[in-house]
Amino acid sequence: MRWAIGGPLAGAGLDADPGKRAVVMTMGALHDGHLELVRRARAEASENGQVVVTIFVNPLQFGAGEDLDTYPRDLDGDVAKLAGAGADLVFAPTRDVVYPDGDPVVRVAAGHVGEVLEGEHRPGHLDGVLTVVLKLMHLVRPDVALFGEKDAQQLLAVRRMVRDLEVSVEVVGVPTVRESDGLALSSRNAYLSADERERALALSRSLRAGAAAAATGPAGVINAAREVLDEADGVVVDYLALVDPVTVDAVADDFSGHALLLVAARVGTTRLIDNQAIEVSPEVQR
């Protein structure tokens, strides 16, 4: 495995191989969820292809008062983990490589997708995500890019950007990786104390409760999930929503079909997100 700090990957020697190139974009502090993305990328790449993992803590997606300065960083540890996971090259550019003229004047706007749910609670967050994703796509020039389904709204925004801007990259979503007790893996889990981690399990419990109520219609799904969250001490909910998986708009009361149940909450000072795909049935009137 090779790794590079500086400039576009043309200088890292990858252009000599004509196979498919797959990229996994991360902010480091890698866990098993990231490594599953890398393993899936290895499978997506052709026999002679390459798997590139980018590590860059993107300042554009952090708002005022968020954890940019304290976000966990362990480049040496990340590279060691990737060596056995199927990565061919780690691209860890510095801020002046990604944004050589300072913060970019021209940025990608997520539109409506970036204004609701995460966008409402983290204004500009998805604009920052899409800007760096597009930049990294230009720098890495992948054939396929893999993203975790845990960040469902981000995945949707990336897919929409690729479609709307005619970016020649296939976007692949990879299912959320969870601990044995159901907690979705996240780099921010490292912030949780033992007690907070136990409290954080309310998020995945609420999603399971909502999924179990799928036959009761949208209102039943939300009510079942909300009941779990209401009973959880020390969990402050930002939002709980059952949405269309393409538009991220809340589904109608009479909706039936494929939907996403999304939750975001703070446990202590740590903000966590999670989601669950649900096949909703129309509520049966009695």
UniProtKB/TrEMBL annotation:
Q: In which pathway does it act?
A: Cofactor biosynthesis; (R)-pantothenate biosynthesis; (R)-pantothenate from (R)-pantoate and beta-alanine: step 1/1
According to its UniProt record, the EC number is 6.3.2.1
State its location(s).
Answer: Cytoplasm
Q: A GO molecular function for this record?
A: pantoate-beta-alanine ligase activity
Q: Which residues of this UniProt protein bind beta-alanine?
A: Q61
Additional remark text: The reaction proceeds by a bi uni uni bi ping pong mechanism.
Name the family.
Belongs to the pantothenate synthetase family.
Q: From the Swiss-Prot or TrEMBL record, give the protein name.
A: Pantothenate synthetase
Organism the protein comes from: Promicromonospora aerolata
